[in-house]
Design brief:
It is globular, with a radius of gyration of 27 Å. It is α+β, with helices and mostly antiparallel strands. The relative contact order is 0.09. The protein folds into three domains: about 325 residues, Beta-galactosidase, Chain A, domain 5 (Distorted Sandwich); about 230 residues, TIM Barrel, CATH 3.20.20; about 120 residues, Golgi alpha-mannosidase II (Immunoglobulin-like). About 0% of the residues have low confidence. It is built from 13 helices and 38 strands. The protein binds (2R,3S,4R,5S)-2-(hydroxymethyl)piperidine-3,4,5-triol (DGJ). The site of (2R,3S,4R,5S)-2-(hydroxymethyl)piperidine-3,4,5-triol has 11 residues, from loops.
Length: about 775
């Protein structure tokens, strides 16, 4: 049984194929955390609980001076009853006090996995895929019940956690902090890994040793953000792609979050994850409930690669939903970097016609098609076609695009409102704002107040009209600024600090409704690139525009960081012009194509400007991608060389000072490694694609052998490159143990793409 309960010891043991997680209800009613790691046959709690008195760690049970919550590993710690570490929840009572004590009351073990009300979450298709434990903890003074929700998957090494609060008392309570999970580790011998950066350089991998005190990441921006992803990991110092222990934590949420590790006075570590408590409060009236988002926990004792593959499998198959979950995604062309705001129908059709000839499958009309928008200063909210640019309307354009053999995609930014819009003129109170304070604009726009039901209804109805008028096959859902003056005209003062979370709930409700109304539209989420690349958005939209930096070299660390958690099929990656529009870099077309082929492939350039040779090459690239698409989009990912593969390497030059950077900063600072390499392998291990990119060439370089991973050691593989040149046939064991001599790549920014196919067995 994946979840067992031993009544004498009141011990719960949760098992996935290779992991165990154990907790125990103590005689005091507190719930202690016992263990999380490699799967065990049996748990002996007496060896795992470090009871014993410590100075300045008070004892809440008078007769037990060996017992303090300050030293006890716990499942859901509270504040004010002797634990001074970060609490999982903090509850304000009407009398102004906030010391809570949660004691065990009841439990349930269920087959399957219940959905979380109003929130995205991983799911099961059949009840026997997972088992769930619910533990009710009650605060005797207030009557507050906190239900801890744990699910283990039977075929994946995944544990999900969440918490549900219910006010069972007679007085209103105010949740000041309501995290999704807390877990205590018996040591601090870990590196903290985070995915951090900025707009256009998202999700750089940062790694640093834990130190006493609190370290972690947080978003206060109203979105999960470009700056920090809602993911952290603890990794043993020796962990690399294939070895070592890694504990991953990822929040299924798109708003403000907190992800932190606290190392205490005894060098134990507490990891906390959930909605950011900063500027958050939730009023819980008697009888009301509050559900936290879900945290997805993955343990690997085979390094980061195995952790990534577990996240990918789960997210590809049991987080993403809908008709496109298992369908190969189309090769798109997006007109943004081709035309920006400056287009008309003839120009768009010309771009589309050229793209169709090259093999592109879907044309996306980006920003600027509505209202009187000719730059970013107006019209968000006025979702009617701009007749100056498109006098025959959207329906006509989409028909013409379809007539070219392409599908039609449309950009929208529905969560925003331009002060220069008819919508704002008729509903000036529909944006987030605080009376008496100026409304801070970002990109000349304000944020619609999605905590309001009337605003949510308006978005659903307006977009239903737009998506039904034209023949829309794909939607790019953008969001281009973060929140300020976070207040809602509809909420009373005591609920103002609920606004940011209510906004996210409103957004999820809108997305649920629209994706259900339009099951045949492929939705892609975007927030100025990858500003909301999180599992919450992936639940509704199975792919995300990875970054507004489309430069292939800048994309190397961005894509490496993204794939640490999120699957390649979710990672939209496009070929753009050279010199690149964001960084001015000149790179070979082939390199741009190979880097984009690591994800969900497309183009972000004007195909009319390609030379005949470039057009020919592009035709070949698109044909190649269509052949390898199932391997990339539905295969298993094996990182070969990226910032994590060389822990402590300090980069290959570069770094903050222009010299080698401090160990652990490589991902954050851009491509400072000399080479990046990755591969994808089909689940049956019959086919694979490997790619290597050389950033800067060296004189007199070392020869380099690329050791592959994930192959079947017993199979022979034919290896050939993107030009169809055969490299010979090698054993899977040879390719993984000896590697391939990739020779010397002359020149900067060069790339090599290799394909592998298992030879039929000679006796077959
Ligand atoms: C930001 C997106 O990331 C870009 O791709 C583009 O759609 C612009 N917004 C349009 O305003």
């Amino acid at each position: 049984m994946p979840i067992t309960y031993e009544p004498e010891e009141r011990l719960f043991h949760l098992q996935s194929p290779h992991t165990s997680y154990a907790l125990q209800v103590l005689e005091t009613g507190h719930v202690a955390h016992l263990y999380w790691g490699p799967r065990l046959r049996r748990i002996h709690p007496e060896t795992l609980l470090p009871l014993g008195g410590r100075s300045f760690s008070p004892n809440p049970i008078p007769e037990r001076d060996d017992y303090s919550l300050d030293t006890l590993p716990q499942e859901y710690p509270t504040y004010g009853r002797s634990d001074y570490r970060a609490p999982a929840c903090h509850v304000l009572e009407p009398d102004g006090s906030s010391a809570t004590e949660l004691r065990f009351a009841a439990f349930r073990i269920l087959t399957g996995k219940p959905r979380l009300a109003g929130l995205p979450s991983t799911y099961v298709e059949q009840p026997d895929e997972a088992d769930t434990l619910e533990l009710d903890l009650v605060d005797p003074k207030t009557g507050l019940t906190v239900t801890l929700q744990y699910t283990v998957y039977r075929n994946l090494d995944v544990l999900t956690r969440a918490a549900r609060f219910r006010n069972g008392g007679t007085q209103p309570l105010s949740l000041q902090r309501a995290l999704s999970m807390s877990v205590d580790f018996p040591s601090a011998d870990f590196d903290l890994v985070q995915l951090s950066g900025a707009w256009a350089r998202e999700r750089g991998i940062l790694r640093r040793p834990l130190a006493p005190g609190i370290q972690g990441v947080e978003s206060r921006r109203g979105a999960s953000s470009h700056q920090h992803n809602p993911f952290i990991a603890l990794a043993s110092p020796d962990a690399d792609h294939t070895h070592g222990e890694v504990y991953g934590f990822n929040l299924v949420y798109s708003g403000n979050f907190l992800a932190q590790a606290e190392v205490d006075q005894f060098a134990t570590t507490r990891v906390s994850l959930g909605i950011a408590p900063f500027d958050f409060a939730w009023r819980l009236e008697p009888g009301e409930t509050f559900q936290t988002p879900e945290a997805v926990l993955v343990y690997s004792d085979q390094g980061f690669g195995a952790m990534s593959r577990t996240y990918h499998r789960l997210y590809r198959t049991r987080l993403c939903r809908g008709a496109f979950r298992d369908t190969p995604r189309p090769v798109v062309i997006n007109n943004w970097e081709a035309t920006y705001f400056d287009f008309d129908e003839a120009m768009l059709l010309d771009v589309a016609r050229h793209a169709a000839r090259l093999g592109v499958e879907l044309f996306v009309l980006d920003d600027g098609w509505f209202g009187h928008r000719s730059d970013d200063r107006s019209s968000l909210g006025d979702w009617t076609v701009n007749l100056q640019k498109l006098p025959s309307g959207l329906r006509h354009l989409s028909d013409e695009i379809h007539a070219l053999g392409l599908r039609f995609g449309l950009w929208v930014e529905p969560e925003m409102i331009s002060p220069d819009s008819d919508l704002y003129r008729s509903h000036p109170d529909w944006c987030l704002h605080i009376p008496g304070r100026p409304r801070t604009e970002g990109r000349h726009q304000l944020v619609l107040d999605l905590s309001r039901q009337d605003v949510c209804r308006w978005i659903v109805e307006t977009l239903t009209r737009v998506f039904s008028e034209a023949r829309v096959d794909y939607v790019k859902w953008d969001m281009n600024r973060h929140m300020t003056e976070v207040g809602s005209a509809q909420l009373p003062p005591e609920r103002q600090r609920e606004t940011a979370h209510r906004y996210i709930l409103g957004l999820y409700q809108v997305l649920e409704e629209l994706t259900s109304r339009f099951p045949n539209i492929l939705f892609e989420s975007c927030s100025g690139g990858g500003g909301r690349f999180d599992p919450g958005m992936l639940y509704y939209m199975p792919q995300t525009w990875t970054s507004d930096d489309s430069d292939a070299i800048a994309r190397l660390p961005i894509q490496a960081g993204t794939r640490l958690v999120y699957p390649a099929v979710a990672m939209a990656a496009h070929v753009s012009a050279s010199p690149n529009h964001q960084v001015g870099r000149v790179t070979p077309l082939e390199t741009r194509a190979f880097v984009a082929m690591a994800g969900n492939f497309g183009y972000e350039l004007d195909p009319r400007k390609l030379t005949p040779q470039e057009q020919e090459a592009t035709r070949r690239h698109i044909a190649l991608y269509k052949e390898i698409r199932p391997v990339v989009q539905f295969g298993e990912y094996y990182p070969l060389l990226d910032p994590l593969a060389q822990p402590g390497a300090g980069g290959g030059g570069g770094g903050r000072t222009g010299q080698a950077g401090p160990a652990g900063w490589e991902g954050f600072e851009g491509p400072t490694l000399p080479r990046y390499a990755w591969m994808y392998v089909t689940p049956d291990r019959r086919e694979a694609v490997a790619c290597l990119v050389q950033v800067l060439a060296q004189a007199n370089p070392l020869r380099y052998r690329l050791r592959l991973q994930g192959l079947d050691p017993g199979k022979d593989y034919h290896v050939w490159d993107a030009d169809g040149r055969s490299w010979g046939t090698f054993g899977g064991d040879e390719l993984m143990s000896c590697g391939l001599d990739v020779g010397l790549l002359a020149g900067d920014f060069r790339a090599l793409l290799l394909r592998l196919k298992a030879e039929p067995h000679p006796s077959a």
